[in-house]
Amino acid sequence: MPQPQARLILLGPQRNAITVAEELEAIGAFGRVALITAGWQEREDDDGNLQQAIGHRGVNLYLHRRTDEVFAEDRELFAAHRKRQDQLRLLRDLYNVRLDAYISAAKTLFHHSPHAAPLAYRTYAASTAQFAARMGVDDEEAQDHEAMLAVLRDDAVRTLRELDAHHLRLIADIHDRFEAQVRPHDRPELRRVRQEVAEVIDQCDAVAIAGGHVATLLGRMRLLDIRQQLGGKPVIAWSAGAMVLTDRVVLFHDRPPEGPGNAEVLDIGLGLAPGVVALPHATKRLALEDMPRMAMFAQRFSPALCLALDPYARARWNGESWSLDAGTWCIDESGRLASKEVADELDPNSWIEGAAGVALSVEQ
After folding, report:
1. Would you state the pLDDT for residue 363?
2. Angle at 273 between CA 268 and CA 274, to 5 degrees
3. What's the pLDDT at 133?
4. DSSP designation for 56
5. Are the CB atoms for 329 and 337 separated by under 8 Å?
């Protein structure tokens, strides 16, 4: 039987819109499929629905359980791993202190204009701008205001990018120190389990990575060196599984019960899905109607493609470029949902006109 062509496919959530079986068939993976469900933590063996969807061909790698077994045998490794997690949590807390202030300033600038979107009316600065517009700011003066704001918005985005980049460098330092001090490759129990996992993957036609708790999934996959174990096998991933494969894992939620949160860079990803930010359940979790907010989001992570991975979404990486199936969208730098081709052509500042239209319709 010919070997399936190696490729990477990111899908939308599979709970109520299962498409993984179609993708396995499309890439010619008709044999066994290695399953990674470590994001489900203690429930990782509860894979009955997934097994049924793919014809009971799945071989669960049980990365969560295997890692726990390694920790039970190697307490020194467990202590070092826990220390690293404590360091990452502290770093995240400190990063969020700065991020909150920077995001607040950037949001005000992105909503501040003579034609501000409704959300901007909550700030004194935007209310002043609205009042000035009603008092008769002419088009030429409004253009001058927008030109000045454009410079300030660009600077705000640059500040956010620099903060994210600095945060990632500090994260990399923590991981590098862990590797140097612990030397995972030299630890017998961990080396044995890594080899077992590699042998199972080698006997499979493809690897499927489910979602769940993104930090747990990433941590277990990193410790067991899954990036290297894949050996060029086709990979299909969704939800948190898609997130961990990117260059940087971005957490986001504009609609949590406690109120809108700030998108934050959680960790360095495995880098198998380069140049994208994976956004599972984008329609539910992002305030897509708030174009200035979305424009700020997309520009912050540019030039990465912000993939809206809603149900039935499909994004394919061929080793050189991304292609999106019909009905799969990205958030472009104007804050709109668009196909990749349309997004490449749009003016990043075109969201200003859209925000003006929203403001006018509300006033009427």
Report:
1. 29
2. 75
3. 53
4. S
5. yes
7-35 burial code (b ≥16 CB/10 A, e <16): bbbbbbbbeeebbbbebbeebebeebbbb
pLDDT band at 114 (very low <50, low <70, confident <90, very high): low
Smallest Cα–Cα separation from 171: which of 89, 235, 240? 89
Strand residue runs (E) in the chain: 8-11, 33-36, 58-60, 206-209, 235-238, 248-251, 264-268, 276-280, 305-309, 314-317, 322-324, 329-331, 337-338
Helix count and strand count (H, E) for the chain = 14, 13
Q: What does the domain layout of the chain look like in residue ranges?
A: 1-74+188-245
Q: Residue 310 pLDDT more than 90?
A: yes
Q: How far apart are CA 185 and CA 173, in angstroms?
A: 19
Residues in the chain: 364
Q: State the amino acid at position 42 in one-letter form.
A: E
Taking a C-beta distance cutoff of 8 angstroms, is the pair 63, 36 a contact? Answer: yes
Beta strands in 107-245 (DSSP E): 206-209, 235-238
| Alpha carbons 348 and 339: distance in angstroms, whole number | 15
What is the model's pLDDT at position 324? Answer: 92
Strand order in the sheet with 276-280: 276-280, 305-309, 329-331, 337-338
Specify the pLDDT at position 147.
80
- Among the listed residues 205, 218, 232, the one whose alpha carbon sits nearest the alpha carbon of residue 54: 205
- Token look-up 């996992």 returns 197
Residue 183 CB burial class (10 angstroms; 0-12, 13-18, ≥19): exposed
Give the architecture-level CATH label for domain 1-74+188-245: 3-Layer(aba) Sandwich (3.40)
The helix/strand/coil state of 100 is helix
